[in-house]
């Protein structure tokens, strides 16, 4: 299999196709959307932190166990994990190539999935099962 060598002339030529336009656009929109959602949810997170300052474990479980705090907090954890995956993807695209790139992208996706499932699962367990 022959690999295509990308040169400055290829990139500068407006008629050449460089990269996957649909995937790049989707990545751009996802990164901006998750960033905006994180900004909106920052108010909820600040409320939780201020409300729980100096409280014991029972008060923490009671506040996070209420559905109107716990469910948005679980959603926030999932959105943050998607945003984290996209941010690390940018770094991996810049500094790794070939088989190492594919391996690190797989590990990045698996780690972010693990963070989302563990974090949201812990919060939802408190919400639904106390």
Automatic annotation (TrEMBL):
Domain of life: Bacteria
Membrane topology term: Multi-pass membrane protein
Cofactor(s), by name: heme
Biological or metabolic pathway of the protein: Carbohydrate metabolism; tricarboxylic acid cycle
Pfam families: Sdh_cyt
Predominant localisation class: membrane
Subcellular localization(s) per the UniProt record: Membrane
UniProt entry keywords in alphabetical sequence: Electron transport, Heme, Iron, Membrane, Metal-binding, Transmembrane, Transmembrane helix, Transport, Tricarboxylic acid cycle
Transmembrane segments: 35-53, 65-82, 103-128
Biological role: Membrane-anchoring subunit of succinate dehydrogenase (SDH).
Subunit structure: Part of an enzyme complex containing four subunits: a flavoprotein, an iron-sulfur protein, plus two membrane-anchoring proteins, SdhC and SdhD.
NCBIfam families (alphabetical): succ_dehyd_anc (TIGR02968)
Protein name, entry field: Succinate dehydrogenase hydrophobic membrane anchor subunit
Organism: Devosia salina
Gene (name only): sdhD
